[in-house]
Amino acid sequence: MEDDVSLKFHQQLLLISENLVTEDVAALKFLCTDLLHHRKLEGVKSALDIFKLLMAQEYLNAEDTFLLAELLYRIKCHSLLEKLGYTKEKVQERLHEKGRVSPYRQMLYELSENITNEMLKEIIFLLQGHLPKRWITLSALDLLILLEKQGLLTKYNVQILEDVCVTVSPDLLETIKCYKKAKDNKAANFTQAFPELNLELRGEFSNVENESKNMTSYKMDGPHRGFCLIINNVNFNSSQRKGSCKDAEQLERVFTWLGLDVRTYTDLTSGDIRSLMQTWQHSQDHKDRNCFVCCILSHGESGAIYGTDEKLVLIRTLMSHFTASQCPHLAAKPKLFFIQACQGNKIQRPVYVDTDAQTPDLSSMQESFPLFESIPEEADFLLSMATVDGYVSFRHIEEGTWYIQALCSKLQLLVPRGEDILSILTQVNEDVARRVSPSGTKKQMPQPAYTFRRKFIFPIPTAPPPSEQHQGF
Fold this sequence. Notes:
Number of helices: 17
Helix content: 25-40%
Radius of gyration: 24 Å
Largest sheet: 7 strands, mixed
């Protein structure tokens, strides 16, 4: 039966690809720019190539074809939607809930569709000081792609487009103004669920106290606080994460003190991790709990963590088990994921300080994953990474990792003061940022991302914090 479903799915994709012309493929590539790595996209020659990339990153499968439906809708290939069981109206209804193409990318594509050949010539004339002398103009999309590559155009800075559109077309300028207005409204009111479901990154939550002053808090007064899973991968085929057990023990003590029911799992393969997530996804015990916490200590690469079999598991896949549709008992409840793992290999391993990068086969390293791609596309999730994308995180072989040490210390210090989790993570960032390796040259910066709609505040425990404290915090 599964083979039949898979065959039918691939037949659908083939049929759709056969009905897309070169311009359609270029449009799909452009709309997928924020979802797929640019090096992969540069090798795309056909729609099937794009479909394969989307499937490889788990954006597209037989059970969920909405992203492809959205893409076809965006490029106005409405007649092909029926091959996926959609209509134009059905896609429109679900865009608010499941749309993946960012407002920025939508705005650029809309501009490209409305730039006539004459307008394009005028824009190129105005921008000639910014364009390579031998650059051959092919289309408006090509021009926008070039401006992005040169860093002249980003989702945070569209000034260059505004400057040329003032002269070329007021209608184009209005499109840009609408985008900026929507973006500004979204940034000013992040207490609402994100309309386009695009996660806002907060490296340092410098304004959290002011922004969240009037927010309500998640309900945390139920009969049970919730479960806290700790996955502690220490022993790998070719390495050992010395110091990780210190982290796991500290997490156990702190989250038990915070009232959670802690379950620790050691040395899980990639298959074991997936199975564990499925088991907890279907647990009926979440019904009477206020929240869910998962801590993963392992080696990692961009957007993924390793099982002890040295095979990668996407963080996005792990978290997707706990969305409202997959785990109804946790719907509208806060779900917190703390990941202690490297997200790249850009900093070399120092003496006396270990890193959480896996090193057996550097040629197999994954492409970069923006943090927003890892978190599920709905409210009530927090993903706190030990380091920013592309970089290692540091682990003392006796005292544990910088990130987990700081996290546990700040939870014990600030929860009794009634601080919310985002304020606490700001302090964790500050703590880790001050640390340096024994060589004095290696540093680290954690990065949280979230889709919380309310403040998350742990109830103040009646017992004092765990007595064992790391020195030097």
